[in-house]
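Example 3.2
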Amino acid sequence: MKSLLIIINTLLPLTPYLTTFLLLLLFLEQLSYLKKKRTVPGPSLVLPFLGNAVSLVRNPTRFWDLQSSLSTSSGLSANYIVGNFILFIRDTSLSHKVFANVRPDAFTLVGHPFGKKLFGEHNLIYMTGQEHKDLRRRIAPNFTPKALATYTALQQIIILEHLKNWVSLTSQTKDPIALRFLVRDMNLETSQTVFVGPYLAPDARERFKSDYNFFNVGLMKLPVNLPGTAFRNARLAVARLVETLAGCAKQSRAKMEAEQQEPTCLIDFWMQETVKELRAGVADISDVEVGAHLFDFLFAAQDASTSSLLWAVVLLDSHPEVLAKVREEVAGVWDPESDELITADQLARMRYTHAVAREVVRYRAPATMVPHIAAVDFRLTETYTVPKGTIVFPSAYESCFQGFTEPERFDPDRFSEERQEDRVYRRNYLAFGAGAHQCVGQRYALNHLVLFIAVFATLLDFKRHRTDGCDDISYVPTICPKDDCKVFLSMRCRRFPALYLQ
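Structure, written as tokens:
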């Protein structure tokens, strides 16, 4: 007690100086923010250090809506989050300028404001130059027509299994069921099966599911890397996930080296090509590196796909004329009672359903923003230079509502052969990004969405449980309906395809 009094008596005379020093630091921080902001619209005053982080975490939808409204005239708006100056880009041409300048002396793609702390320094997201080109070349065989046809069968089997479970769940209750977590689990199993197929044992799948949940929760939290925090749990989960995927790569490599079988999943196609390169004397890639890149694929495919599938259900329910045309088209191509899966050729013939899928992605771009960091002071416009260290958020969501005919209207016919708005307004269709880091798996993602729409609409009748604001956008971290897409489900056909669902 005596020692405490001595400390207090020693510090007490210094209190005015410490207070003045603290106020000076706060003043300098505010001054730095205003200097970086210049004439760009945004809040004039921000809280020290935290900035507007609290409002971002509490209500992301309102936060980004405000940034969008501030940037209507100039195409830009500014803010301050956890010691970081941020810039929101609404204008499509400015977004393209960022996408086209991902390199060490311009912008670095981060995928998430705190992505490097989660994903590590050397993943696909952060690669540039020749190293990035080489990796994308190696990845290309994973998405050839032959590979996509292999995945089509795997995707459908899992979709059918989960739809059957959803109907069973519905029959046990008179209440609507929320699809968000059901769709997420279905997509996680789909990704696991398509990416690493037979190499992930059942017990590993359960651990995988748990770890991915830790990762998802950590994405939406502040980067407090202390024991027991959600962010620390997410980092540890990522390390375990990469280790698991590296083990799958090792098993696949051994099988492809033996040349015993044709590829049955994505990692087989990758390792088949890797083995060829090894025999040709091309530099190898380690299993751990492959595991890290597979995790990138998983991250890109999982939440974005879940978002699109949920919005497909919402939009088909609210546009019965579109639903009727989808059902008519699918019925002319595929009969579920034939006990045959939809083939790649049949899928290609579902042109209207493809248009619906593309319009779902345009209307509700799942990854609404693609964060980058300015590596240098970068002149973005004639009057504004982005300061080094700024986190820049080009908005794919906003771009998808620019240029198109009646962009606020859900209209799959805009992608018809007659109108071809996908070509006319191609620069605005940024749902899959642009430039060197444009989504490498976009054909796979669209195929998955088309398959789901075709099977779901054909086999099930569904009705949304409508409440006030149920279709409002919620960030989790991709966007989904605020009510998690609650629906009533019932069988539309007499039975599920019997051959695959015993």
